[in-house]
Amino acid sequence: MHRKMVVIFGASNILWMVFAASQAFKIEIFPESKIIAQIGDTVSLTCSTTGCEFPTFSWRTQIDSPLNAKVRSEGTSSTLTMDPVGFGNEHSYLCTATCPSGKQEKEIKVEIYSFPEDPEIRLSGLPEVGKPVTVTCLVPNVYPFDRLEMHLLKGDHLMKSHEFLDPMDKQSLETKSLEVTFTPTNEDIGKTLVCQAKLHVYEIDVKPKERETTKKLEVYISPKNTVISVNPSTRLQEGDSVTMTCFSEGLPAPQILWSKTLDNGNLQVISENATLTLIAMRMEDSGIYVCEGVNLAGRDRTQVELIVQEKLFTVEVSPGPRIAAQIGDSVVLTCRVMGCESPSFSWRTQIDSPLSGKVRSEGTTSMLTLSPVSFENEHSYLCIVTCGRKKLEKEIKVDLYSFPRDPEIEMSDLLVDGNSVTVSCKVPDVYPFDRLEIELLKGESIMKNKNFLDDEDNKSLETKSLEMVFIPSTEDTGKVLVCQAKLHIDEMEFEPKQRQSTQTLYVNVAPRDTTILVSPSSILEEGSSVNMTCSSSGLPAPKILWWRLQNDRDPQLLSENTTLTLISTKIEDSGIYVCEGINQAGTSRKEVELIIQGRENNKDYFSPELLVLYCASSLIIPAIGMIIYFARKANMKGSYSLVEAQKSKV
């Protein structure tokens, strides 16, 4: 059988050699004859041979110009890579393959083009109804442009087309354009401008031969027919209100601008809404108001004159007749006059003390700024307004308070189960403290509250506190301690009258019930091992430390694990071992004495391990002898049967 396989294998080798010798030397190139490449792309030409095991390749152009490409040859193929493709690659390339049996060449022609972007549509200006505008279609970076064709359409209507058949003087990227001038009409609104560009390179397979750009035609109409409506009338009295509405036609809808004509004839823009409302009018509001409709195509305006007649004046103060001000804040008291063109202002306190503030008057408004507010500002302020021969005054009372921060909860010590602790709730920088109430709660139950009703001897910021002693238990863990502070000032509108702070209770339990479990025993023979396990209860769970007491020396730290293991103990390992449970609430200790005894010298010692080894050897040695005996007997007979061997022995 083996000899037959050798004969078959030799025959197959001879047939393969005959087949290989019959393969003629050939050269092929891919792509086969011609390629159209986009400028800027990457193109690879591959030349390969058959019938030649180790060919030699070379590349050149038909006119022996530079390759402008990289060559990589490997085995029976060679690749010419142009990256990126440029004008220097527009050639016929020749690949030459040389073998011992001869030399062959293959040619491929590379043509290039550039058609990278869609056309651009540009307008010479805004397309306004009735006014000529020029639309331009641009095709950038095209080559060869003598094969370019362009069409410009408005909707489905062809406005202009052109074929660029002029001969090219040189190889270059050109931007070609097509222009049309037309006059937009109302019918053009919503139509689309379309620019189509075609490059007649029929061999293009991947890149488009046709590109198109569209642009919606936005036709504008300049504002016109601008009108104003006035309600209730153009003649008004001081304090009245008037609403003026303006409308203007145009496309897109014009933006409305309201202006007032100043004394020097200039216009001052006062609104950009179609409706202008003037309230609480004064005599100086009289004048000419101009409405102007504006869009990108132009503007159109019209105007109206308002006449405001004199009216008896009134005085108003804000924020109101009474204000509660936070110490340290800024407060502005405003006095405003209605019905007087040129009022004069003055401010004073009701007891003629210093103002302790800054006054700023402008037009019909005067403002007294108190910044920062202090105890010197707790007064009744009067605003006096003089208009001609008439005089009016208004009063504003300023009450002070200080309630800037939430209460602060403090504990005298760590919360430990069964240990008394003092909790305090502090309210800092409060005024007036005779209106302060503090309440301390645990969960929803009130622990203590206090009203500070003592008379104030002087004006000052005070820190008030509420203290109480309680004994926490583990049942308090998770409950919320709440400190509420209330300042009973009814005039406060913006600042909170009530502040509170919360703190979640976490009650610790000092370590206790510390125990030690020794396995197998605290009295051992030398060489034995022992495990000592310590446990201690507490909250949070105590950390376990193992110490060994030493005579005349500090204790020795042995371990921070729950279990302390000693292996192969010695007599010197005897001593006092201490387990200590520690947490932030305290410590708990437990001691154990470990005694290591020496072995007796006259006592025969057999370890269990030696006994097992002795028994095993007494069984293994006879078994090995029997195996050797039966193996030799089997070699003599040529075969062996354990059953037959047993029978023969019998």
Automatic annotation (TrEMBL):
Q: Which residues form the Ig-like domain?
A: 25-111, 223-307, 310-399, 511-595
Q: How does it sit in the membrane?
A: Single-pass type I membrane protein
Entry-linked SUPFAM superfamilies: Immunoglobulin
Which gene is transcribed and translated to give this protein?
LOC101392051
Q: What is the lineage of its organism?
A: Eukaryota, Metazoa, Chordata, Craniata, Vertebrata
Q: Which residue ranges run through the membrane?
A: 611-631
Xref: Gene3D superfamilies: Immunoglobulins
- Read off the PANTHER family from this record: INTERCELLULAR ADHESION MOLECULE, VASCULAR CELL ADHESION PROTEIN 1
* Intracellular or extracellular location(s): Cell membrane
Leader sequence segment: 1-20
> Chief subcellular site?
membrane
Q: What is the name of this protein?
A: Vascular cell adhesion protein 1 isoform X2
PROSITE patterns linked to this entry: IG_LIKE
One Pfam family, please name it: C2-set
